[in-house]
What we know:
Largest sheet: 7 strands, antiparallel
Mean pLDDT: 91
Strand content: 15-25%
Order of helices and strands: EHEEEHEEEHHHHHEEEEHHH
Structural class: alpha+beta
Distance between the termini: 18 Å
Amino acid sequence: xxxxxxxxxxxxxxxxxxxxxxxxxxxxxxxxxxxxxxxxxxxxxxxxxxxxxxxxxxxxxxxxxxxxxxxxxxxxxxxxxxxxxxxxxxxxxxxxxxxxxxxxxxxxxxxxxxxxxxxxxxxxxxxxxxxxxxxxxxxxxxxxxxxxxxxxxxxxxxxxxxxxxxxxxxxxxxxxxxxxxxxxxxxxxxxxxxxxxxxxxxxxxxxxxxxxxxxxxxxxxxxxxxxxxxxxxxxxxxxxxxxxxxxxxxxxxxxxxxxxxxxxxxxxxxxxxxxxxxxxxxxxxxxxxxxxxxxxxxxxxxxxxxxxxxxxxxxxxx
Length: 318
């Protein structure tokens, strides 16, 4: 497994357990850190452990919360990548001498995955100018098919509600305001925050109508190039959001807006528009275009929030 993450020799959150696990996997084992997880890569295998964090959008503070999150990650990602997600393993032994999948009382939990080559990531291909129109066309077909078979949010669930989305959008601003480096850009940030509030309110009736029509589904939630692969001649979606259902049970238009935004961020605007057009042709959901600017800005703010959290953890790369 690879991702658009940063390799680091030690975890920003001090973890003797992770360092001991890495040593136990051999000298060639690699450690990759995200703002929420550690990934250990060894041979053909990858092991993902949750950081013991409690934030406004995630609770991995206790071992049972981390176990439940691992099991949910396995469930939701087997919908699109069953060949990658192999199981959930207990970490046993001690923090100084841990074992993956061994007998005894668990001291933590890990998602066991099949490792894939770095160049399978579409983020890697985009960064090297190797992302092609045929990749984007296949992605549009795969994502549309996944969304068509995804569970529809039940009435009364609150998923996809305009007020809920507005709260999620505004939550992204909190760590941005906290960064001192933005002190000279506060007026620009304030204007952006006001625009999201006004635009979200304007779109509220459309969002409600789309909920009623069944467009709010259990989607992916983090559909950017770092969570998309090209394996054995086809696209594969992986690493869907497991830790907060509000971020996964969303309008299908909001889900694809992340990829639309990310293609622009990678300097591939023509491919972004090609993807959107192909997805619209597959789904017939031309109404989704009305909310695209708002949703694309929301997704850009999500990325900014992740970057801010990485800075807060002592890692300048998001």
